[in-house]
Amino acid sequence: MRKFIDENYKLFIDGKWVDGGGKKFETHCPANGELLATCAEADKGDVDRAVSAAWRAFETWKDVSPQERQRILLKIADLMEANAEKLAMVETFDNGKPIRETRAIDVPLSIDHFRYFAGVVRAEEGQATMIDKDTMSLILREPIGVVGQIIPWNFPLTMAAWKLAPALAAGDCVVIKPSSATPLSILELAKLLAEVLPPGVVNVVTGRGSTTGNYILEHPDFRKLAFTGSTEVGYSIAEAAAKKIIPSTLELGGKSANIFFPDCPWEKAIEGLQIGILFNQGQVCCAGSRVFVHEAIYDKFLKEAIAAFERVKVGMPWEESTQMGSQINEAQVEKILSYVEVGKKEGAKVATGGYRLTEHGLDKGCFIAPTIFTDVDNKMRIAQEEIFGPVVCFIKFKDEAEVIKMANDSEYGLGGAVWTKDINRAIRVARAVETGRMWVNTYNSLPAHAPFGGYKKSGIGRETHKMMLEHYTQKKNIFISLSEGKVGLY
Amino acid sequence: MVVTKDTQVEEVVKIKGVISYFIQRGVSPISCSGAFPQSLGNLLSIKKVADPDAFIEGLNEYIASQSQELKDRTDD
């Protein structure tokens, strides 16, 4: 572990590694409790310095040509690729997610994000319109300035890439705060960024949400806030942005519907159910946590799902055979198990799982057995509230109209899927479910080049697509009179 | 520790066993953002808890009972 992770990490401000003014904090491996590193906490002065450095950097970064920004973004991607194994191991140790996921998904997707935005930045163009024969209107996109970004613990590196790549492509400068539970991969990324970015373009401030996070929200000099996290905290971000009259993009919670029709591609569908709720230990904002199964296949589907869940290898995340790793911490385990009790009290039945795993050396970690609830009514709390663990609710349905109604009976609208070989039905259901992303015959696929974001209380804005550049730029209109004569009013 | 509306949620969730009290009452104090980064009063307001005073009173009773239970176990 020590060959991948330093014992101490500082703040990255103005291109330098500096001590923080706040208390130090520790980050531990959730799979065995081992101390990984001690990190600096940014106090108010540190956030001030980071924002000032970003504004100084913006004076030149805003005018860096698209060609040069593309070259830098590609260089970042290349450096990440050269350090891919290290980034994967750091993420796995700090977060508890299986190494097979960080190697195959988190790190490659993050790299590709920089490459994607390196590509789109060269295709961006303004507009010119002749309002009439003597009047021209030019529309140019300009960078918005200094952006504050707050990253969650469930996909630290990937979420950072989702936010950094478009911001840098747009010509903005950034102050980014990783979660205090998982700061390490972003700090390691900062080492790579330091090799190619001018000082101050990206600044990393670590610390708790109640201190460093709130200093970011309160700081008067941000021109935009970007956040991924819970809907509850999303309110605070939106409120802080509103008080400053600046935009915010929010990617928030979910309780997504994973819908299975009788003509679903069977083997793929069973795996899709697992990918929907077991990927990243279910700690995914768009997890397919409500599983709607047509009554014609319900019993057979459930039986095979239980068998599939019980075959999943839960284990130490750095072992290559591990399919499901550790939850992020003790608090999250307590939350998940509390929801299991809530479900039982509501009358749902645990078909498999529902308990903590401690045998075979897992006793020092935060491991939960893959869990299926049956006899669930969509009105139950376990079907409405985000559990954020490997816990899925099975709900039977009769027809399309009924399942669409139940799928939409949620305050959230982030993800979802429909499984069927009937293309007409797939499109009908996908259109009818009120959510920002509907997968058809797949789940939790999140590459760059397809927009991702929420309806309803799941957020505002679309990441992972060139349309995110809209959120990181502002439009300048240059309005030109080509007439040589006066208007004639005075 | 006596919890009030002004207590930071981050401090409250450090108390072992307290998260189940929140979840049983429909309030999640933690998420992928970590502990809710503001006061308990703000969280209860966002979650539209009808009687926040009763919630906090019950929470203090719960913490006291947990402390007593822990003490009893230690004494045994």
UniProtKB/TrEMBL annotation, chain A:
Assigned keywords, A-Z: Oxidoreductase
The molecular function GO annotations come to:
lactaldehyde dehydrogenase (NAD+) activity
Q: Which residues form the Aldehyde dehydrogenase domain?
A: 17-478
Keyword Oxidoreductase assigned to the entry: answer is yes
The protein's enzyme class:
oxidoreductase
Q: Which InterPro entries does this one have?
A: Ald_DH/histidinol_DH, Ald_DH_C, Ald_DH_CS_CYS, Ald_DH_CS_GLU, Ald_DH_N, Aldehyde_DH_dom
Q: Name one Pfam family in it.
A: Aldedh
Q: What is its EC number?
A: 1.2.1.22
Task: Tell me the leader sequence span.
Answer: none
The active site lies at: E251
Give the family this protein belongs to, as stated in its UniProt record: Belongs to the aldehyde dehydrogenase family.
**What PANTHER family does the annotation carry?**
ALDEHYDE DEHYDROGENASE-RELATED
What protein is this chain from? Aldehyde dehydrogenase B
Record the organism: uncultured spirochete
